[in-house]
# Entry
Amino acid sequence: MKKILTTPIKDEDIAGLHAGDVVYLNGLLVTCRDVGHRRLIELGQALPVDLRGNAIFHAGPIVVKDGDGWKIISIGPTTSMRMERFERDFIRETGVKLIVGKGGMGPETVEGCREHKALHAVFPGGCAVLAATQVERIERVEWLDLGMPEALWVCRVKEFGPLIISIDTQGNNLFETNKAEFNRLKVPAIAEISKEVRFIK
Amino acid sequence: MNMPASASPVPAPRTAPLPDKEQAARELTDIMARFTGYVGKRLPQDVLDKLAELRERETKPLAKVVYDSMFDNLEKADRLDRPCCQDTGALQYFVRAGAGFPLLGELKAILGDAVRQATKEAPLRHNAVETFVEKNTGTNTGTSIPWIDWEIVPDDDTCTIEVYMAGGGCSLPGAAKVLMPAAGYEGVVQFVFDVITSYGVNACPPLLVGVGVSTSVETAAMLSKRAILRPIGSHHPDPQAAKMEALMEKGLNDVGIGPQGMSGSASVMGVHIEASARHPSTIGVGVSVGCWAHRRGTIRFQPDLSYEILSHKGAVL
Ligand code: SF4
# Structure
């Protein structure tokens, strides 16, 4: 059975979820990436979208004009780590409950998710048409002056996912655990290969 | 010789291109625009085969979820005729042209026009930011973009063009460095593993890893890019280099990065090495990375512009 989160997300909806769980999203998902974060946190500009209980997507879509509205052609996650500098403050300022992106995030985001009860989840990178077909409609766009990839696209989504939780509300970080394991496994692998490539004699 | 007096054996010098040349240029532009768009929507056959094999072999549940999404996505991209990843990259063309290819002189302009056309028609995301001006040109063209790499072949009149879409995520891990000879090939291995296990994790694995071993930083870097243009499953002709490719592929897979860094039974689609002779005091090493959505395509033109698509099975433009 698919585990589905619906916005507005409440603390108790996500308290029992763990890093490594797979969920889907119904409701409001707003794209927000580098400059969107910078404007709120560094430049102190108020965000033109209320994110309380909602979800953001680290993504820059391909969008085309469709009559009076817009249509998503392709939308996929970008590297979340670029937003690490801002995310803890961003969670505190906005009350966002779910952050969707690609790859892991760092200790500051982990703290933000623990303090304010939020999640970071991964949508499989490069699966941009799959994601686009799960966007029911674009409700509106803000900060279009930033250009297509950086603008805030307010999307209504249906069973958006799979979303693999990478940071939960208890301080677990899937990618940190994985990376420690990769670094442990790489040592014997390198040693093994090095024995076989002493071509300079 | 029995020649009518009016016929001149020496062609008159041309100042403007012939009209049929202009038409040929338009035709080539159109084909390259359509091919570029096509490459953004469908992966080459060797990549598809490799992904299917890795998916089949995968045992971890989260990794399987990711592989399922990838194939679902590819099917939808094909059916809806849309770019399979939203990041359609900075456009790069690797040209191998015969010195006698009729449109050799026009090719640079043709490829620029093809990119502008594909950007509108495919469509492609606007990914060319003019450096220092810090403005997105909105056309995917700008100073030296599309990036074109030339190789001219004497006594030949065909032209083979390799299209590559260099996405942001998969370009980020790129690194190059010059090692001292004491570091040996062991140093090359260490460098590759350090890059892949740190930055590679966010570059949408399973990755195609290109390694250049050469004399200095830029030659190693360029060879590493050429390495990821080689078809998956191909091997370096030198047996020691081929052995090193196989060892690094196995070693990286043993690290088990898995699709999207979720951990899984593979990390890479392959490791390719390209090498040149080098200065005795240096070992230049470069690493380039292709992501799972490795959008690469090869097309070969005859002088009359009839063409053959070598990378994609059954492709229709
Ligand atoms: S790394 Fe590749 S698949 Fe992933 S988002 Fe970038 S271009 Fe797309």
Observations:
- Residues A 76, 125-126; B 85, 87, 167-170, 203-204, 291, 293 surround iron/sulfur cluster (CB under 6 Å).
- Residues 4-173 of chain A form a domain with the fumarase fold (CATH 3.20.130.10).
- The first helix of chain A runs from residue 11 to 14.
- The mean pLDDT of chain A is 95.
